[in-house]
Write a structure and sequence with these properties.
Blueprint (H helix, E strand, L loop, with lengths): L8 E7 L2 H11 L6 E8 L9 E5 L9 H8 L5 E6 L4 H10 L3 E4 L4 H12 L4 E3 L24 H11 L4 H8 L3 H15 L4 H10 L7 E4 L6
Parallel strand pairs: 1-2, 1-3, 3-4, 4-5, 5-6
Antiparallel strand pairs: 2-7
Helix pairs in contact: 5-7, 5-8, 6-7
Length: 224
Amino acid sequence: MTQVLDRRIRVALADDYEVVVLGLEQMLTPFADRIRVVEVALNNTPHEQADITLYDTFAQPQVTDETIDHLLAHEATGKIVVFTWNIQPDLAAVAERKGLSGYLSKAMDGADLVDALEQINEGEVVVHTATLPLECQWPGQPDWPGRQAGLTARESEVLSLITQGMSNQQVAEHTYLSINSVKTYIRSAYRRMGVQSRSQAVLWGVENGMLPQRGRISRLEHLP
């Protein structure tokens, strides 16, 4: 019996938050005839061999950090593609200089994302920097912790970093936001959470999934 060659692109998903990577996996599910998710990596370098590792920057180091360098040096990761709200041209330029194969905005829907991954798999470098207000929500949008409580994507990211113990200045440097923008997101997040102090916000964050997780979830055993 002749074995059918599986030509789907093998994709690993990387971020420290389970709700983020599983939401991204769900976003790719309708395209299972073109994309094969082989692993979900939480605060870990992917282990399963992938053609592309999709690195979600939610509450993660940006491309200027050595985290990306470690991914690039790892054989199993394949080509590295960043999926991000931080679409500043200088960050996209750093990604290209470091040899990343894609720098993609989270304004993309699932169909556009899969199209981009196919172009990248064929050898192209794809940079997509379309903007979309972070307060906007639509069906199929990538998920984030605290979304069910009404937090916007950026409020959630800022709160996640505060829950990890970062100062306002550290959050600003981590997210490429101004210090005033960070303070604005903190105030609006406090209102949505119903808290009045940083200690209350941190406690809320700990109780509502704002701390990073660690582990790997192989998808190979579930694949045809």
